[in-house]
């Protein structure tokens, strides 16, 4: 059937042109957010002299001097890969474990379910710094100081409440009917979960994973205290370049590029999933 | 294909008895309805048959096999859920093929079976679409197709038509009944819509508060209700129920309401020992179609009432009459009542057909006396 060519529009719909000021606001917000970051990135590609010059220049000859210094002389890629390993591993573990916790909280009725659910939430209420010293002592006793395994363990534990809390809500939005219908059709519970519930949960799980990964990637306080040479991640490593009497701005800029680039690429690649995941359950049919 | 036997089935949620002592035997190939208001335990009963809920006590057997505590996958039942339970992430084909894939059938066989059932349900054109691109009627067909595609022993349907509009529902009723009889698989259908149950069922189980009130054919449910609740739940508009007292008036046994006496059939009074109830309160029931009305009172039409409201429904007219504090609804064909006044407040005379009067026990709600007209010994029944 041929589609009618005329444009159907409700007379009450606002004209598109009337919304020009929305774009103005958006541009303003983007500028405020983007210009400082752009400046940092530009600084990273300057040489030492132009970076610390009193009159900043928009146009300059790009130089990889700072990156060379960080990667070759300081070996920052070791910290970079530490960060990659720690954030990927802790995301994987916290999302996998959290998924099952969330499923149980969303689907099953058991004594103390609401208490468990609230206790999980309270874990996020406490400022992490409050337990820094106890955790340090625990890690020392367990021999986990300055190990990647220790950080993975800690980050998994730290992110679990968030994962459980996010996913419980999303699981509740998926009607139990789907699994029941699969089970009546002859599936086991786990097969029904894997083939029916998980595909429906994928956008939400992806969105949660992205959040968790960003949090783990950026974690600073514990990484600073619990690592020294072997397991040091990016945030504490970069910290070293921003203290001291003589700050080398181009080195700091390059370090910022190195720590933010993976996140930006990651979010750009997955933004579609991120948005659809966040809006799950919000838009109801 | 199989029969279903349910023996003293009980389900408790905490202190609440959702299903209490249900006993049902469904014959092979029968189309049985679980009918009742929401919260009466009909869906819980169905879910226990499917294995989605485990009974607190009792026994369920399908085809002679005890399945009481088996998981759903070992029962070989097909089910349609109220909101269809179709998978959003699969196409219609994928949805219908799902139960076959679970059984690891060959690809060719799956395609052949899905296409065959799609033809039966007339959904061949939408096989490649996703469920969110379908209309409510199509979703319903897909859900039924998914149930039909397997060789299930028993079909279970949980209010599958509640999301359809009235017109589509009418069509689906005839179609579903036809399919059930063609396929010949024992089917249990849950509904709160008495019309659905009356039009499609071989037999109906009426449930209320977890208890089974009556298990009988639609005609018997309608004409010989076991309780006042069954009598009022089935039939539209519902049966008139009046508070009355059995009395002796001029040597005859009558039912006295607050404002008028209702003459009773002498044979019926004798057979049902209504005379024993003299001076006792009863609940008198009569269906709207068994009340005749005319303009002026005469020897038969002795009850004088005022027209409270007039509701034409096309072929039939509903007259709601008021006599003091008593309200009764009557139903008669438009041609017969064409000459009657339709103005609210005008006076009319009514006659209760003594052949179709029911008596209910006000304390227990049970039927004391079935209407004389419904007597099974009568020839025309």
Automatic annotation (TrEMBL), chain A:
The keyword Cell membrane applies. Keywords: Cell membrane, Membrane, Transmembrane, Transmembrane helix, Transport. The chain crosses the membrane at residues 20-42, 84-106, 118-142, 148-171, 204-227, 247-270. It is a multi-pass membrane protein. Gene3D superfamilies: MetI-like. Residues 80-270 form the ABC transmembrane type-1 domain. PROSITE patterns: ABC_TM1. The keyword Transport applies. Coiled coil: none annotated. It comes from the Bacteria. It is found in: Cell membrane. It holds the Pfam family BPD_transp_1. Belongs to the binding-protein-dependent transport system permease family. This is Carbohydrate ABC transporter permease. It comes from Shinella lacus.
TrEMBL record, chain B:
Belongs to the ABC transporter superfamily. It is found in: Cell inner membrane. GO terms for molecular function: ATP binding. InterPro entries: AAA+_ATPase, ABC_transporter-like_ATP-bd, ABC_transporter-like_CS, ABC_transpr_MalK/UgpC-like, Mo/tungstate-bd_C_term_dom, NA-bd_OB-fold, OB_MalK-like, P-loop_NTPase. This is ABC transporter ATP-binding protein. SMART domains: AAA. Residues 4-234 form the ABC transporter domain. The lineage of its organism: Bacteria, Pseudomonadati, Pseudomonadota, Alphaproteobacteria, Hyphomicrobiales. It is a peripheral membrane protein. Keywords: ATP-binding, Cell membrane, Membrane, Nucleotide-binding, Translocase, Transport. PANTHER family: MALTODEXTRIN IMPORT ATP-BINDING PROTEIN MSMX, TREHALOSE IMPORT ATP-BINDING PROTEIN SUGC. Gene3D superfamilies: 2.40.50.100, Nucleic acid-binding proteins, P-loop containing nucleotide triphosphate hydrolases.
């Amino acid at each position: 059937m041929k589609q009618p060519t005329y444009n159907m529009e409700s007379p009450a719909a606002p004209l598109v042109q009337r919304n020009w000021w929305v774009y103005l606001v958006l541009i303003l917000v983007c500028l405020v957010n983007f210009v400082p970051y752009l400046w940092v990135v530009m600084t990273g590609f300057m040489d030492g002299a132009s970076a610390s010059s009193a009159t900043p220049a928009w146009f300059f000859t790009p130089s990889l001097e700072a990156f060379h210094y960080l990667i070759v002389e300081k070996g920052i890629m070791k910290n970079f890969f530490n960060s990659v390993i720690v954030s990927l591993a802790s995301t994987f573990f916290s999302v996998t474990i959290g998924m099952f916790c969330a499923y149980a909280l969303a689907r099953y009725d058991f004594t103390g379910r609401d208490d468990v659910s609230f206790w999980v939430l309270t874990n996020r209420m406490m400022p992490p710094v409050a337990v820094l010293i106890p955790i340090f002592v625990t890690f020392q006793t367990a021999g986990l100081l300055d190990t990647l395994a220790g950080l993975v363990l800690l980050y998994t534990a730290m992110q679990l409440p968030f994962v459980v809390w996010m996913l419980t809500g999303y699981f509740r939005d998926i009607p139990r009917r789907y699994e029941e219908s699969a089970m009546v059709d002859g599936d086991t519970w786990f097969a029904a979960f894997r083939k029916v519930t998980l595909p429906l949960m994928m956008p939400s799980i992806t969105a949660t994973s992205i959040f968790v990964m960003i949090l783990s990637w950026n974690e600073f306080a514990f990484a600073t205290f619990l690592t020294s040479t072997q397991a040091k991640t990016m945030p504490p490593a970069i910290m070293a370049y921003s203290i001291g009497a003589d700050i080398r701005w181009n080195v700091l800029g390059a370090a910022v590029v190195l720590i933010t680039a993976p996140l930006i690429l990651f979010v750009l690649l997955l933004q579609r999933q991120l948005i659809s995941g966040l809006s799950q359950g919000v838009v109801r049919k | 294909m199989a029969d279903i036997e349910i023996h003293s089935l009980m389900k408790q949620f905490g202190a609440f008895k959702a299903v209490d002592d249900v006993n049902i035997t469904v014959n092979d190939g029968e189309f049985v309805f679980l009918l009742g208001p929401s919260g009466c335990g009909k869906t819980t009963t169905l879910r226990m048959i499917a294995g989605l809920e485990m009974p607190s006590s009792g026994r369920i057997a399908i085809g002679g096999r005890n399945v009481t505590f088996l998981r759903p996958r070992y029962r070989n039942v097909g089910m349609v859920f109220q909101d269809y339970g179709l998978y959003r992430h699969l196409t219609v084909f994928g949805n219908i093929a799902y139960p076959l894939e679970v059984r690891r059938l060959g690809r060719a066989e799956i395609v052949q079976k899905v296409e065959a059932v799609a033809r039966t349900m007339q959904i061949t054109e939408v096989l490649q679409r996703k469920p969110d691109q379908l209309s409510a009627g199509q979703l319903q067909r897909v859900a039924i197709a998914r149930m039909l595609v397997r060789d299930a022993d028993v079909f279970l349907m949980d209010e599958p038509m509640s999301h359809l509009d009235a017109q589509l529902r009418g069509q689906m009723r005839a179609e579903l009944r036809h399919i059930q009889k063609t396929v010949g698989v024992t089917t249990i259908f849950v509904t709160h819509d008495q019309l659905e149950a009356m039009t499609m069922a071989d037999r109906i189980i009426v449930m209320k508060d977890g208890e089974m009130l009556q298990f009988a054919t639609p005609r018997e449910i309608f004409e010989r209700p076991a309780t006042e609740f069954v009598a009022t739940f089935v039939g539209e508009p519902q049966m008139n129920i009046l508070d009355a007292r059995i009395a002796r008036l001029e040597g005859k046994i009558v039912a006295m309401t607050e404002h008028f006496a209702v003459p009773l059939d002498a044979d019926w009074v004798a057979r049902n020992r209504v005379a024993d109830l003299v001076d006792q309160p009863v609940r008198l029931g009569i269906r709207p179609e068994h009340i005749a009305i005319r303009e002026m009172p005469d020897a038969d039409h002795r009850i004088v009432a005022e027209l409270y409201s007039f509701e034409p429904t096309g072929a039939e007219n509903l007259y709601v009459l008021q006599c003091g504090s008593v309200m009764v609804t009557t139903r008669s064909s438009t041609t017969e009542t064409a000459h009657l006044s339709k103005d609210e407040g005008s006076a009319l005379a009514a006659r209760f057909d003594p052949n179709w009067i029911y008596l209910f026990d006000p304390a227990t709600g049970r039927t004391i006396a079935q209407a004389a007209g419904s007597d099974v010994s009568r020839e025309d029944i």
